[in-house]
């Protein structure tokens, strides 16, 4: 079993909207694949198909060697799923939530309790274990949710935007947990809108946009494949920033980005660097910082999709923005409510939103 | 870790879930719905206070005006209140299911190697227990206020059984609403705007012979009327077979219409 997760030509349509348009994926056992993409790119749809919650319209997928459609039950015995929303029963305590899953998986009452204790311990929830989950903070709920998906010791774990809406500290905590799981040999597929997250955790990355994979590779490969390097210049005197930007624009023939007292521009031909330095020198502009570096994933993303990925969880709105993904799955009930439109329309609406971002 | 896996977990699942496992999973999920009551006293209050409040309000506010004396009215209305409460309560299945869907709990359950039907069956089982509890509570409280079962214990149990059968038949509709509704609040609205007029235009709470002709005609075909008459017959005497038969026919009709729809929607969403 060389691949823990394998998908070929996955297609999922909702009326006029194509949520997935021929997606191929392959994740080796014990690896973490980061699926990166903006809202509505089809990430959640792909996860839902792989987790047997949704049938593809075309293509096939296998988890642990079992087909997700014809052998769904076996797939379910191998996987754990943690979605964007912490899917825990808020009325139950932490312990009860985990015991319930353990019992459902066929553990005896005693075993289920022991397993719950183990997991609560591991996720620093022991003290809160006796409290109803609705009293938990967002980060705690997410950890409980993740714990719930681990009760059955899954070999393959799907983490669908596990840190969306979390504060930076909780996010880093969750990253540590994911690293721990990797150390246990669990195969992970993680979707995220945050480039940093993919960069931090993933062995390899695929970039989704509008239902297709538009790039794949390791973080380094992606960085070097698209647009090479980035030149950054910070003039010592801030009032000369515009002049420096002008110089760079002239040399590279494109408008650079100016922000935070710095001029940033993608560079494809390293030979432009000496030219720029010379011009700056001629004009008497002293650079307090001048560097040539590999593009960040953010820049890669921009180059690939024509729009930036979100670098920070914008706000709680992001859950709404992702409605295309969820709608597809007929889940984002509120989205449907608000727009009162049909599925196809909603997909489009979401796309419009995306373009507005760009 | 892998070694522990084999030690603590049953062997990798087969292709299907056996009957024994299905029943166990259903019981676990029913437990889950019932243990919630322990943590959410409000739900318990909802479940207990609302019927009692209805009972008190109807008996003491309307009782005298309708029947001349509160005692007479209580005797007449309690069976109707039992029906009203049971019908309202069938929609709690929809609310619970819908909450699970919107919160993602339903997806979690569906991603587990358990029987497909267990989440639904577990919820319905739990709601049936809650129905029995509400029935016992209302009858018990009614007796404190002076209500008397004038038939027999068999009549009392028969009434409970009939209500449970009707509630189970309506559970199909409830499942359908729960799967389709956009939010739990909406389910509540649907519940209120259908059940309220249905029960009020029946003979559940007032004798329908004071209704204007058209309303009386409606009341005569209103299934709630038949159910209320049957329950009344079982508890305080009167015709049973006729109205109970009609109620059971209605229940069968409900199952015939809503079961296939609910199953189809469940298959496509689930």
TrEMBL record, chain A:
Family annotation (Pfam families): ABC_tran (PF00005)
Key words of the record: Antibiotic resistance, ATP-binding, Cell membrane, Membrane, Nucleotide-binding, Translocase, Transport
Ranges that cross the membrane: none
SUPFAM superfamilies (UniProt xref): P-loop containing nucleoside triphosphate hydrolases
Subcellular location: Cell membrane
Membrane topology type: Peripheral membrane protein
Region ranges (Disordered): 310-358
Entry GO MF terms: ATP binding; ATP hydrolysis activity
GO biological processes: daunorubicin transport; doxorubicin transport; response to antibiotic
Keyword Transport: yes
InterPro entries per UniProt: AAA+_ATPase, ABC_transporter-like_ATP-bd, ABC_transporter-like_CS, ABC_transporter_ATP-binding, DrrA, P-loop_NTPase
Sequence ranges assigned to domain ABC transporter in this UniProt record: 5-235
Listed GO CC annotations: plasma membrane
Family named by the database record: Belongs to the ABC transporter superfamily. Drug exporter-1 (DrugE1) (TC 3.A.1.105) family.
Protein name per UniProt: Oleandomycin transport system ATP-binding protein
Lineage per the UniProt record: Bacteria, Bacillati, Actinomycetota, Actinomycetes, Streptosporangiales
From TrEMBL, chain B:
ABC transmembrane type-2 domain boundaries: 42-269
Compartments where located: Cell membrane; Membrane
InterPro entries reported for this sequence: ABC2_TM, ABC2_TM_bact-type, ABC_2_transport, Nod_factor_ABC_transporter
Transmembrane segments: 44-66, 86-106, 132-150, 156-177, 248-266
One Gene Ontology term of the molecular function aspect: ABC-type transporter activity
Membrane topology per record: Multi-pass membrane protein
One cellular component (GO) term of this entry: ATP-binding cassette (ABC) transporter complex
Biological process terms in GO annotation: response to antibiotic
Keyword entries, A-Z: Antibiotic resistance, Cell membrane, Membrane, Transmembrane, Transmembrane helix, Transport
Family per record: Belongs to the ABC-2 integral membrane protein family.
Annotated PANTHER family: NODULATION PROTEIN J
Entry protein name: Transport permease protein
Organism the protein comes from: Thermocatellispora tengchongensis
